[in-house]
Amino acid sequence: MGYDLQAIILELLDWLGTIAFAVSGAMVGVRKRFDLFGVLFLAFVVSVAGGMIRDVLIGAIPPAAMTEIHYFVIAVLSGLATFFWSAHIVHYQRLMQFLDALGLALFAVVGTQKAIQFGIHPVMSALMGMITGIGGGMIRDVLSGEIPFVLRADLYALAALMAGAVVALGHAFQLPPVYPVLAGAGLCMFLRMMAIFHGWRAPLPRPIHDE
Amino acid sequence: MGYDLQAIILELLDWLGTIAFAVSGAMVGVRKRFDLFGVLFLAFVVSVAGGMIRDVLIGAIPPAAMTEIHYFVIAVLSGLATFFWSAHIVHYQRLMQFLDALGLALFAVVGTQKAIQFGIHPVMSALMGMITGIGGGMIRDVLSGEIPFVLRADLYALAALMAGAVVALGHAFQLPPVYPVLAGAGLCMFLRMMAIFHGWRAPLPRPIHDE
Amino acid sequence: MGYDLQAIILELLDWLGTIAFAVSGAMVGVRKRFDLFGVLFLAFVVSVAGGMIRDVLIGAIPPAAMTEIHYFVIAVLSGLATFFWSAHIVHYQRLMQFLDALGLALFAVVGTQKAIQFGIHPVMSALMGMITGIGGGMIRDVLSGEIPFVLRADLYALAALMAGAVVALGHAFQLPPVYPVLAGAGLCMFLRMMAIFHGWRAPLPRPIHDE
């Protein structure tokens, strides 16, 4: 695959992830009965916050979502569509979960790849990929007054970290980025689907009796 | 108007906004029965957090509130005054709402202007103005265990964004900053007053029935 | 004391603080019944978040916890140990409070010292030391859906600020850093112990009657 095609694929995945997370953020705003503006704000925050945190931490300042206006445009259009069609969207729970898993997978691999390009240690790059994937959802839940779903959902942050690890390993073996990126995203989606449909989960701590 | 006078006006507006938000933050601390130190901490956080987030995102690092000590001094003095006079301040609800609207308006226009000076796209600059205005209140509410008021209040974040948009438009038409800054701040205060006294609000989403 | 020995002592204090906070974060995850991964995530966040906020605000980007991998390793190992031994750890409440006070003291002095080295004003450096000490706990509590303990606990943030003030004063008097660092950490621990065992606290605001 030529370099141009790879760059285009990475770009497309990034756009898709932005749409998926903007819709997911906007739906939370609709459920919480925020007004139109609050809904658009959540759509924007959820779709760019993870990437912004990553960019600040890896030293890519100003963050991409500040300098490239298309993130804002995509998020606002997705938020508007969600606001007006929420009554329909709500009937497609499975599709929403699939979109969310897709966004998680895409952001995790794209985020890891960007951190590697900025010279961050591969282990921390995988973590940055995870933050890119779960950061928006964490902020969405904190702003909605809830304990972040992403910290408790079955194999959620872990799936994002695995995706990042695949990309980091691919870099260590000097593979062209697009293959580990696709493989990592696939692994992340697989883990989330197994968690949703087959109840896969990470070990729980033993209950504590101290009261 | 000469450049010096313009700079002095912008500086004065920034100080006024800092006082307004420090008092608003300190009052929340008093209501939640934080101790003296917690009250001062909230006064400081609410008055500088929005600007700090903006500065980090536009690449103005370290943020102004780190390098210019007067923000800290103003916030602590305002917090102290609030701590000791809270029993009086609480009787002036309308004055407090007015001060809060003033702080919102001033921070939104000053924040937008700063982002423009750092070469940020006008659309994102207006958003950064909004973040400057609502950031402190968002963090205040999250730290107090509540869903941010600024995301649900009638025309709150929207009023700040409108103020930023006026400043960004003024920049596009190459007006001297002080005029759109004053016009934007006026528009923001007008919108907030209409929301408070006449119940103006943004459209709400249709209720969702999915349980 | 030679420079090397001083540097080693500062480094050791930083490691100890990281362990103390990683264990404290992991215990919260265990109590909230997060899974293994959530527990490790909280261990990492609580131990590095304060330092990351400080580093971003003083312009030390990427933050040390991004570029030096040992923070990650220490946090994960401490989190793993806590996950498996939580049933034992829970019986040592006093030890946990002592460890937490130790972490607070160490992070406050090390954080202040780093801010001073980056040319930040001494007053703001002391504040940055406080943020280093309380930042992780603030984020831990917000992510767990609670009002931050660090803002309400008796002499918690204040003890950290006092520690930072001692380091900042030492710098003003051009003392070699290691002495004010140890003195500041000692003062912080003393204040926390007095708060825990003798109920020392900061003044409370008068109750507000407005409903």
From TrEMBL, chains A, B, C:
It is a multi-pass membrane protein. It is found in: Cell membrane. It comes from the Bacteria. Residues 12-85, 98-170 form the Glycine transporter domain. Belongs to the UPF0126 family. Keywords: Cell membrane, Membrane, Transmembrane, Transmembrane helix. The chain crosses the membrane at residues 12-30, 37-57, 69-86, 122-143, 155-173, 179-200. This is Membrane protein YeiH.
